[in-house]
Amino acid sequence: MAKFSIEDIIAAVNDLPALPQVVLKIMDLTQDPRATAQDIGNVISHDQGLTARVLRMANSAYYGYSRKVATATEATVLLGFSTIRSVVLAASINDILNRELSGYALGPGDLWKHSFGTAMASRHIAKRCKFKAIEVAYTAGLLHDIGKVILNNFMKQTYHEVVAEATTEQISFLEAENRVLGFNHAVIGSRVARKWQLPVDIVEAIAFHHNPGEAEKNPLLTAFVHISDALCSSMGLGVGADGMFYPVSRNALELLALGGKDIEDIADELSDAIIELQQGN
Ligand SMILES: [Fe+2]
Ligand SMILES: [Fe+2]
Question: Does the first or last residue of the chain, that is N or C, have fewer Cβ atoms within 10 Å of its Cβ?
């Protein structure tokens, strides 16, 4: 029996701040054919904290530029409009994802590492599968577990029960959440994405990241996120107890035509970025 009502959860979703104005502005500008890199750079550089985080990300090993990116405009030119859009989103929700989520046994920064790792892996797999919108894959990966931020307070009282349910019943963590709470973090996360007015296929990928077979609008996108999430969980990247109960969808692997060797290659290619991430650079 659920201990909480859907109204409690909806109230918690509503309490989450809206996306910052600067992110909305960047989302508009990066889709405006008349906008220039200078316009975008100017908007970013009005926010010092955001600029610092964008530059840190642009200068990370993941993007691999040999010279240092010094300004937001330069980062926009080098990364391109769609990449700068996802980098700005990542940089601006860094605070939300950095929180400690004791209800999920996640320390400060753990969800950020897990989300960022999943975002990078999703982008990577999307590129490998020749998917056009690789930044959409990045954003969906980044936000896939955002529902945990909402459910954390509810999980604080029920975490042990959820873990016990998953262990004794041999079910996934998500299913145990459903049974104990009456909700799961994937569905709640999709409500956050809707509140933030993100595209419907991102909403869907978040909703079904643990059950990729249920995706209808964009099964590929959901499969990228699912496999990346599983990969990051298996690499121990910012995972709590749910990582121990993670059934990987064979259909998703087949859909993406990924074999064991491909997964190993992807994990190898990601490890530099992950080491950097764990060092807090
Ligand atoms: Fe999840
Ligand atoms: Fe996850």
Answer: N
